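Q&A log
Question type: sequence-to-structure
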Amino acid sequence: MSATVFSASLWGIESIPIQIEVDASHGLPQMTLVGLPDQAVKESKERVRTAIKNSGFQIPSKKIIINLAPADIKKEGPSFDLPIAIGILACLGHIPPEKLESYVFLGELALDGSLRKAKGVLPAILMLKKEKGKSLIAPSANLFESGLVPEVSVYTAAHLIEVISFLNRETALARAENAWEGFGETSGSSGGFDFSEVKGQFQAKRALEIAVGGAHNILFVGPPGSGKSMLARRIPSILPALERDEALEILRIRSAAGFSGNGQPMTVHRPFRAPHHTISSAGLIGGGTFPKPGEISLAHHGVLFLDELPEFKKDVLETLRAPMEDGELTISRAKTSLSFPARFMLVGAMNPCRCGFLGDPKKSCHCSLGQIMAYRAKISGPLLDRFDLQVEVPPVPYRELTSFGSPEPSPCIRERVKKAREVQRERLKKDSLRTNSQMGEREIRKYCDLSPAGKKLLEMAMKELAFSARAYARILKVARTISDFENCGQIQAEHIAEAVQYRSLDRQG
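Response status: OK
Response body:
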């Protein structure tokens, strides 16, 4: 007797349909699994056999062949445990095979038959939304993401026995409710940090407000202890609220990466990722034998913070150049190419030299010119060009550290950022863009209208400071954001002047 069960497999952050064909016949008692399974899938034979036994069923001495189709696509992970077990039980007559046609199954089985969290449930649901006609049966641990797409019926179970009883129409399964009801649109998770805790650094805070307002990449350069990391860690407290489609994209990536919670409602924040400088290229951009999202995709619609930027391997940093421009990353393999979203705001922090005290008014720098050049050469010119704002962060004077005045708190800054983003969203909605940083050459020509004085000042800056064409575009986009904070339709000379001021490393060069 044979049976066919439907499941899904992750391919990047997308889900592809998988048919699991099970055949039980007389012959040498054994269970054979074919269809390019990885080690985790191969080991499912023992998990499934034990889970079925501990659920009160016996597998007779038969030859069982399990085929995962299509056979030319590699299958990974333990989420095929549940559909394999259902297919075996259908072959043995415990479940009517015709009951399986309307469902897709995902879930890892424990040895006692209970269901563990499955990776990639949300991509599978989005696949079913396109194909229509089928419902999903998933573990109860995936309850929250199961209700993110109300158009698809998703049933959750905690044990294999519950699924069997449901298919035999003996009991009902819990149906995932709409998880968007009462969804609170929130910004990043600030971790209790607030800009009111940052003494001094008024220019750096102003630059950071502009950077967040337009989702611009920003680089802090300053001596140790000047507050570069302190400023960056407080960015989540001023990030604007997520829109629902942004939240769904973030959750889809997290689901594909296996970070989807444990059945409890999640507060969806804009991500803030801060990988260590020892990270590999695959860890940063994604990849591997089975390509998975890297840190830049996990930072989608959020912030990627690279502290001690020159300490990262140069080849790792160079992989950022294309995603910073395109907002997505394509990883090519022998048989296919996978695309991962990567629309993030890059925040970098570095010392001005190896010892860190170049330009410090109180401490002397002991680095030679060659050492300084070698240290800065770790960040290539093309990568440096892609930072819209390059800001010097000097040491904080003692009188500012000991002052009793209370700096501006994050909610006030966030309100201004929110209003600036609303101006951009209204202007760019016809172009399917959200922020000024996403503007291309066509949008720059269309929306960056300069006053006569602004044109003259920009022309002078280009000649005197020898900015590149890319720096020219970045200056215009930053100036456009500065004018949006003032709700000014035309970019004025003072907006250009401030934007040029934030190209400190270019000016030094």
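Response note: The first helix runs from residue 39 to 42.
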